[in-house]
């Protein structure tokens, strides 16, 4: 199925937002497993944002801009990107990140752990959730975070209904 984005979505197609962290050290194995279960149940999260001009109108490259989310994808596609480290991501890559034409997943997650500053203090973990704002605005991001919280607590959750025209 292909879900075209609206004209409003096109204005945010490549902007990305990163929420953040919590007190304590997050169990990254449990988080990665929960993300795998979510994308296994809610397959649209395993889709890819694609420029439909690549498929339908190569001669009109500069004239018509249409983005779509294509699902389902082959089972061997990575349903999300997940990484973790004890140092900020900027240690490995130049910030801000540039645009990419790679076939990236719709959600990218990175956990950075920060040790206590002084003895007796607790460590912190920062969870980065990168996504296209054209697909997940604040409400859309919350619709991903609710199932993640439920999965981490071992609770049931319902997959949102498919989009309709």
UniProtKB/TrEMBL annotation:
Query: Matching InterPro entries, A to Z?
Result: CAT-like_dom_sf (IPR023213)
Its domain of life reads Eukaryota
Name of the featured protein: Uncharacterized protein
